[in-house]
Amino acid sequence: MQPEISLVLVSYNMTAQLRRTLMSLAPAYQRNCPPGRCEVIVVDNGSAVAPTLEEIATPGLDITLHAWRDAPHSPVPALNFGIAQATAPIIAVWIDAARLATPGLIEAYLRACRLHPNPVVASYNYHLGAKPQYHSVAEGYDEATEAELLASIDWPNDGYRLFDISVLEVGQSWPGPMLESNALCLPRASWKALGGYEARFSSPGGGAANPDMFSRACALPDVQLIKIANEGTFHQVHGGIATNATDHAIFRKLALEYMKIRKKPLAPVRQPGWLFDPRTDLVTRP
Q1: Where are the domains of the chain?
Q2: Closest Cα partner for 168 from 142, 133, 144?
Q3: Residues 65-85: pLDDT tens digits?
Q4: How far apart are CA 262 and CA 66, in angstroms?
């Protein structure tokens, strides 16, 4: 049976976080997502100690693991490889696998994709903790602190309580501008039309490859941007290149690389799009 949706996740030195992410995608956690509805393709991008399929096996979840050796610093080749392995008509891509999902996210993807013939479906990015992690890590926030935080809400028993212990990663909520979505979801035809992530983004972490992809997707002809309310992904601390960076020079390098490749400043997508609330089925248009 062909899955309805493929999720492509790229990991790097984050086995513990990846296991929690996969737990948040499992049928026991996700609403209305029985075994077989979703496939997960994990591409490990050259971890010092790559995870094994036995380590990340998750009950009811169809997982394929590809572990690359001698991988480049950028996750872009791994992303494009993962997309090429996907078998479903709808594909959601996570450039950073250290993200916990809310319990209705997969169902929200599928329902949002039914709202328009050419959807660009974007969920919001959150950081676990009281501040964005590029601030909180400098103040001592670490994996032990985060484990205590998750225990305080009895995660994973109620995945929606992640909102209680997190903050929006960057930008504004709807109808404000959006720079990127860690969990960008498009029909297979749109991924093909885009030709994958831009290979020239070769810096560690991919630089601005993810905002670039989001901007390019929203610029495709006749598409409709659909942002998801009351669902999202929540970043786990793991020493990420940008999300956990305390040196703002990294962000300057990211912006400079984007300017060099695209010949224009890095900027968020300002079109508000539609806001889809899967809990109420309400679609809000500007």
Answers
A1: 5-284
A2: 133
A3: 999 888 888 999 999 999 999
A4: 31
pLDDT of residue 240: 53
DSSP state of 37: S
Determine the angle formed by the axes of helices 209-218 and 249-262, rounding to 10 degrees. Answer: 40
Return d(Cα 176, Cα 263) in angstroms, integer.
Answer: 24
Quick check: 228 and 121 in contact, CB under 8 A?
yes
Which residues is 224 bridged to in the sheet? 119
Quick one: tokens of 238?
């793991």
Q: How far apart are CA 22 and CA 24, in angstroms?
A: 5
According to the CATH classification, is domain 5-284 in 3.80.30.20?
no
Task: Tell me the two tokens of residue 67.
Answer: 């572990």
Please report the pLDDT score of residue 247 as a whole number: 46
What's CA 148's distance to the chain center, in Å? 23
CA 215 to chain centre: 15
How much is the pLDDT for 248? 59
- Span 172-187, average pLDDT: 94
Return the SS3 of 141.
coil
Read off the pLDDT band of 246 (50, 70, 90). very low
Cα angle at 74 between 68 and 78, to 5 degrees? 40
- Partnered with residue 62 across adjacent β-strands are 39
- CA nearest to 252, candidates 262, 266, 263: 266
Q: Are 90 and 5 in contact (CB under 8 A)?
A: yes
Q: What SS3 class is residue 22?
A: helix
Q: From CA 158, how far away is CA 30, in angstroms rounded?
A: 11
DSSP H/E element including 210: helix 209-218
Spatial distance between the Cα atoms of 87 and 39, rounded to a whole number of angstroms: 8
